[in-house]
Every structure is written in C-alpha cells, then in structure tokens.
Amino acid sequence: MELDFYAQRFVQMQACQANAAHHAIAKLSDRFDVICITQNIDTLLEKAGVKEVWHLHGRIDYQKCEWHWEIPPLDAEWQCDYKAKITQPTQLGDLCPKCGQQLRPDVVWFGESVDMRVEQLNAIAPEVDIFIGVGTSAQVYPAAGLLTFFEYVPEKYFIDPEPASDALKGYTVIAGTSAAKLPELVENICNRS
Ligand SMILES: [Zn+2]
User: Fold this and answer.
1) Distance (Å) from CA 91 to ligand 1 centroid
2) Active-site residue among 23, 55, 57, 68?
3) Predicted model pTM
4) Distance in Å, CA 96 to ligand 1 centroid
5) 158 has which bridge partners?
6) Ligand 1 centroid to 64 CA: how many Å?
7) Which domains does the chain have, with CATH numbers?
8) Residue 193's pLDDT band (boundaries 50, 70, 90)?
C-alpha cells in the first residue's frame, strides 16, 4: 500500500539530519545564487538551509488529491488544484477539502510523468556560471536529461563515486562521494571569489 510506504518515509524523514553535502550546498547558496535541482522527495536540503530547491519528484511533506491537475491524464476534465503542507502522514480516508477525492503525498509515483520544468531550465541555463552534478549518475534520468540543458555552462563539475566518463565530456570529473568531495569543491569555489 503506497500510503503506508510514504507514511513511513515521512516519519523517517523527521528523524533524518542533513549531511556534509547538504550543508555544503547551503553554504554555496549563502554566497551565490544557487538553484538546487533534486530528485529527492525529502526536505534535508531545506533543513540544511538551501534557499531554492526544485523537487522534480515532489515533496513528501506536501499532499495533493487524486484529481490534482499534475496527475495523468493531464487533459482530464476533472482537475483540482488543492495542495498543502502536512505535519502528519496522509491516511486512507483523508479527503480533499476542495473536491472530496482521496488525498496522497505530493510525490511522483511510478508510471507518472516527471515535470522537468523545461521552460524554466531554458530560461536559466544561459545565465549559469557553474554547474555541479552530484548525488546521481550522469547516465540515469532525469539527471542525464538535465546535462543537455547545461551543455554550454563555462564551468562544470561532476562528483560521482564511479563516474561515467563518456557522458561527461567538458566536465571536471571528481571521483568520490558527495559527502566527501562536495565540501572541498565548495570551499575552493568560495575561496577564490
Ligand atoms: Zn481535490
């Protein structure tokens, strides 16, 4: 049962703490305009203090209903715009105050499409000075799709314990985990400017 699964994740997340990588991104976002694009549904980046986070797969601390307009079929006539922050996991029987449908976490479930925010990506890409890929492989989606948007960014890094060099032409590739390598990279970027 999906609601039970996400209810457990919600409870687990409350107990989780941000790690060195989350804090490094927060430090960078204190100094520069940083947009953090993530597949994570937890809110550890926010907990660490990262100011702007795009959750491509949604957020576990929000709920929407089964008739929400983001859920396929996208051209459905029955659409709802209810979405709200939660402090307790969504339960079976919790109904949308707007349309009366069952509520569910605001996360992208298997088989549902991911909104890549293509328009926004196209708008910001030419303004980006530095791109850092971290916490994912360059070969899996949606990360792999993101790389094409930032192809012409002058300075690009990718941190990966097992970097896929084919996909990373033009990148400074750093082999290692995000928690180990990202703080060092952030330190270097902050110190030179
Ligand atoms: Zn609704």
Assistant:
1) 15
2) 57
3) 0.89
4) 5
5) 133, 173
6) 7
7) 19-37+46-54+114-192 (3.40.50.1220)
8) low
